[in-house]
Amino acid sequence: MVRKHTAYRMKRALSLVSLLVLGLAWTLQGIHISSETLTLTQDGFDLGRFMGQWYEVAVVSTCPHYMQNKRRNPVIVALELQHVASEHNFTMTATTYRNGSCKQTFTVYSLTDHPGRFFHHVDRLGADVYSYVVHTNYDQYAMMLLLSTEKPTGNKTIIVRLYSRTMDVRPVVLDNFKALVKEHRMSDDNIIMNQNKGECVPHQQVTGPNTQISVPK
Ligand SMILES: *[C@@H]1O[C@H](CO)[C@@H](O)[C@H](O)[C@H]1NC(C)=O
Ligand SMILES: *[C@@H]1O[C@H](CO)[C@@H](O)[C@H](O)[C@H]1NC(C)=O
Ligand SMILES: *[C@@H]1O[C@H](CO)[C@@H](O)[C@H](O)[C@H]1NC(C)=O
Q1: Residues 6+ apart with CB under 8 A from 167
Q2: Is 155 a pocket residue for ligand 3 (Cβ < 6 Å)?
Q3: How many Cα neighbours within 13 Å face the side chain of 76?
Q4: What's the pLDDT tens digit per position in 105-119?
Q5: Measured from the CB, is residue 156 less than 6 Å from ligand 3?
Q6: CB-ligand 3 contact for 27 (6 Å cutoff)
Q7: pTM of the model
Q8: Does 87 contact ligand 1 (Cβ within 6 A)?
């Protein structure tokens, strides 16, 4: 009797949990900036420690175009993040091999009122993008969630990225990344592991600020 009751209560508790998860997922789809999305970021986020050199080692997206492009060129992207104290933004220079040559893009991210959440706009796609540092230990890995809304179509895309301070990644970190991907209802089978083609040195200089993202849609 008592056991049955407990089982019932557990079931209720579980369905309450799935309701909450659904609520959260809906919020993500709607890309509302609510108190729920704010809990997505690393506790006590420290922007200064997050700056510097990273490598994008793994990525998955709900956008088929993005995945198609990425699969064609699954190469590690070197990232250099720089923040000038007193400015409400930081820059990211992304360097990678594309089509046989070394390409560089430059993006300005605005800080938001919530630590670990950034904003940038991609002109080419008319997309507003919020980035969240979901988990990081600063000196090894960072798990990034990007929520993009294309203004003309209203299309919404989720991108989950794994940054590493080195070009490789420990299995335990990769397992945690897969769990995060599944939390966002994507299959971990779709995760693209970027390959190490060595450091590349761009031929041309960065031509000033634009808001391109490193991979075309
Ligand atoms: C960065 O933020 C500062 C103010 O904090 C602003 O003056 C500057 O124009 C911004 N830079 C860019 C590239 O948006
Ligand atoms: C890559 O190179 C091929 C052949 O040189 C060319 O046809 C294609 O348009 C290039 N793609 C991009 C994205 O530059
Ligand atoms: C927007 O999403 C719809 C449905 O997934 C798709 O058919 C359409 O091609 C997308 N538009 C763009 C510009 O990606």
Answers
A1: 55, 57, 76, 196
A2: yes
A3: 19
A4: 999 999 999 999 999
A5: no
A6: no
A7: 0.77
A8: yes
Amino acid of residue 17: V
Q: Do 139 and 35 form a contact (C-beta atoms < 8 A)?
A: no
The two structure tokens encoding residue 70: 């990425």
Given the CA of residue 108, which atom of ligand 1 is nearest to it? 13
Query: What is the Cα–Cα distance from 193 to 164, expressed in whole angstroms?
Result: 12
Is the CB–ligand 1 distance for residue 88 below 6 Å?
yes
Going from the Cα of 203 to the center of ligand 3, the distance in angstroms, rounded, reads 35
Write down the H helix ranges in 117-213. Answer: 171-183
Query: Which tens digit of pLDDT belongs to each residue from 21-45?
Result: 433 443 444 444 444 555 689 999 9
Report all structural domains of the chain as residue ranges with CATH numbers, in order of start: 42-206 (2.40.128.20)
